Amino acid sequence: QKEVEQDPGPLSVPEGAIVSLNCTYSNSAFQYFMWYRQYSRKGPELLMYTYSSGNKEDGRFTAQVDKSSKYISLFIRDSQPSDSATYLCAFTFYNQGGKLIFGQGTELSVKP
Amino acid sequence: GAVVSQHPSRVICKSGTSVKIECRSLDFQATTMFWYRQFPKQSLMLMATSNEGSKATYEQGVEKDKFLINHASLTLSTLTVTSAHPEDSSFYICSAGGRGVATQYFGPGTRLLVL
Question: Which residues of chain B make contact with A105, given a CB cutoff of 8 A?
């Protein structure tokens, strides 16, 4: 079983749609749960991180963690063409810049 | 957010030559820097963890003599690909971890093409 599973897509949605991106993981020792956005040929950019189960909202983005199911999600409301990118979930154990374990990334395309 | 730079952004070299990539944290001190490799449409694979003033820790399967890492200061780490071959062509990304919450700030990446 892979440590992290993420559907690579590609996922294509019309502008304004709600997007749901998901990852499952197997290691219950993960402490931090993150979502990164990566535009083509660029480095990843941190979108959101959470520590505990529950929801965290930032503008049009909502991160959701369910530790009991080992499942995390990122929701994007009112999606825009500028949201077109690859979204990577990431996990880590430590509190000071520890080693990150990434999902494969989901390629998202938002059509105008 | 914090800024991490990489230089060069793109390099083309001949097989057998060595290439050095720099990673700098511009507005914070990074005790730890990480080097990743990414193939097209694939995720980031951690190559090594670099700690200031000490030897890098390499992930399993990564040749330390081929990928030399130096972390000479709290703001600079370098990756040298020695005797590069076409199979080393890839996107190399560094990240810098500061103090506080478990986050890393990524550089923009360096695209290496070995002919």
Answer: 42-43
